[in-house]
Write a structure and sequence with these properties.
The complex is a heterodimer of chains A (about 210) and B (about 40). Chain A is an alpha/beta fold and about 210 residues long. Chain A has eight helices and six strands; from the N terminus they run βααβαβαβααββαα. In chain A, strands 1-3-2-4-5-6 form a six-stranded mixed sheet, sandwiched between helices. The N and C termini of chain B lie far apart (about 50 Å). Chain B contains one helix and one strand; from the N terminus they run E-H. The chains are: A alpha/beta (about 210), B mainly alpha (about 40). The interface between A and B is medium-sized, with 35 and 27 residues. Strand 6 of chain A pairs antiparallel with strand 1 of chain B.
């Protein structure tokens, strides 16, 4: 007799969680282990797409320390879906994932978290246990915005949900930025584009 | 465009609590860097 295991809540895959599985890892060495853990997470994601039943696949998107994982823990963890938690920093990475999700007949949803204040996001990045070079922050914030705009333009059928994270009075909160027309979403995302130098300046004004 | 606030999350949720602590530590790092930078300039 087959035993049926009921999974409660989302099937969550994250690059950061994969780091914990690698021998020799410690948070102070997060950058050193990042590429390997990203590959492990991608492999696990590909496996779970095929083996797991949820039809909805959420790709989180947003620069480092935007509040993505926190958003997942507060609002998505109970859902019957697969969640891939990464910054989605490259168009090619997004292309591969969207294609794989479509091929298997599941539905892609992009959940993007954009911080209302890059200085606050940068402070969270500097203060967390996982240590990365500052270029990682600039690259992921610039790259995830670029990827988001590409998805909106090239994959208009893919649902994109934008959430702005805020931090006031020591509280982390979120606001859904909702667009009734896709063209307005694209116009908004076009205004959110910054290169790495601009992100560096916004995060740490001189 | 509509801005729709979500119900505030539990601030003691472990992930959110860790984030809040990271922001506090990070702001201290930024402050110290600025003070060190100002000291060097003098």
């Amino acid at each position: 007799m087959l035993a049926r295991v009921l999974r409660m809540g989302a099937l969550y895959i994250s690059i950061d969680d994969q780091k914990e599985q690698i021998e020799g890892y410690s948070p102070s060495k997060a950058e050193e282990f990042h590429a390997t853990s990203a590959k492990l997470a991608d492999k696990l994601f590909a496996q779970k797409l095929k083996s797991e039943s949820p039809k909805e696949v959420i790709l989180l998107c947003g620069g480092s320390a935007s509040g993505k994982t926190e958003f997942y823990s507060a609002y998505l963890s109970h859902r019957d879906c697969i969640v891939f938690d990464s910054t989605l920093p490259t168009i090619e990475g997004a292309r591969i994932k969207l294609r794989a999700i479509k091929k298997i007949g599941k539905k892609s949803v992009i959940v993007a978290v954009l911080p209302d204040d890059l200085q606050r996001s940068f402070a969270a990045f500097l203060g967390r246990d996982r240590k990365f070079n500052e270029k990682h922050f600039y690259r992921t914030h610039a790259g995830s915005r670029r990827t988001l705009l590409w998805i909106a333009r090239e994959h208009p059928g893919v649902e994109i949900r934008i959430y702005e994270s805020s931090y006031k009075n020591d509280k982390l909160t979120y606001t859904n930025i909702f667009f009734e027309e896709h063209a307005r979403l694209i116009a908004y995302l076009e205004k959110q584009q910054y290169n790495e130098s601009e992100i560096a300046q916004l995060a740490s004004p001189s | 465009m509509k801005r729709i606030p979500l119900p505030p999350p539990d601030q003691n949720n472990p992930a959110i609590k860790a984030y809040r602590e990271a922001v506090k530590r990070g702001k201290k790092i930024v402050r110290e860097r600025k003070e060190n930078g100002e000291r060097k300039a003098q």
